[in-house]
Amino acid sequence: MEETMMLEHRISIHPNRPNECRWCHREILRRRGRHGRLFYYHKSHLKRRVGESRQHQLGKQAVAEYFKAREYHVELEQYLPQVKQRADIVLVPKQGSMIVIEYQCAKITPLNVQRRTHRYQHVGFQIHWLLGPTYQQHIPYAFLKLTPAGLQANFFDNHHWQKIIYDGANPLVQREQITRPARLRQQIMRGLYFCKTPYRQIQNELYQIGYNLSDIPVCCLPTETFPPGPKAPYWYILLRLWLALSTGPKSVEALVNVMTPIAWHQSAFITETVWRKYCLADILRVWTAQGVICRNHDLICLNEKSIIK
Question: Residues in domain Competence protein CoiA nuclease-like (predicted)?
Fold first, then answer.
């Protein structure tokens, strides 16, 4: 008798019914592997799309049960002719417009998220993206929304809807940023010593305006975590802003323009300009508290002690 280990139990062929499991009485299918070995497996009792993972399949079921318990009428894999697309979950509330829930486990580009979101919104559907547990291992840049509480993404895990804020207290954000000035300075000096490309390029740019990267001001070495967004390290952004301010007072818009050439992550729900302004506001808050800058009407000025002669 041939058998294979399953998630629930080991398949055992019924002696009188070869296509049935003797333990759960579910239908058994079989196929041959790459090396010709015959495998038996349970026929899934859940409908799923071609190429859909079991994790996504079970996640959708859990989300559906979550909303059924809250008295929504729930449809799974509903085809919506208005957008010519099949939605993971459609909620029909007692009042108001239909709500589409997309439960996302696999990687997807911000552009595809944006296109699908706009497609639903264009015909009057509300759309919410719920992320699976795989997205909790990294910052889900493509799904971040700017809310009053900060940069937020929605997750569904362990039968609960979770709203996770990505700020300085978030471990994933802390993991991506170094906030120890001594360590940062050592890293910069090491990059200069070994002539690593980004450090060498920055050094050459600074030479042209009479500065040296090894003399980076202390105020440009972060001591606390800033919001996620830029692909460049924050010390580089702080240095660029400091250099701009060292030539004279600047408006907030001018400082945003200083940050514009810096590579940025993409979100389907936040424009890069809005995201840059949000991060800049946090930088200015920290620098104001540290006494690095002051405001003169609508202009930002470096304090005298922050300027290297």
Answer: 52-148
Where do the domains of the chain lie?
1-45, 54-165, 177-306
Mean pLDDT score across all residues of the chain: 85
Strand partners, 293: 302
Q: Are 241 and 189 in contact (CB under 8 A)?
A: no
Instruction: Check whether 186 has a pLDDT greater than 90.
Output: yes
- Interval 242-261: pLDDT, tens: 999 999 999 999 999 999 99
Pairing between β-strand 126-131 and β-strand 99-104 as defined by DSSP bridges: parallel
Beta bridge partners, 191, equal none
215 phi and psi angles, rounded to 5 deg: -100, 25
CATH, range 54-165: 3.40.1350.10
For the chain, what's the residue count? 309
Q: State residue 241's pLDDT score.
A: 96
3-state helix, strand, coil in the chain (%, to 5): 40, 25, 40
pLDDT of 4 strictly over 60: no
SS3 273: helix
Nearest CA to 219 out of 290, 303, 296, 308 is that of 290
Closest CA to 174 of 185, 166, 165, 182: 166
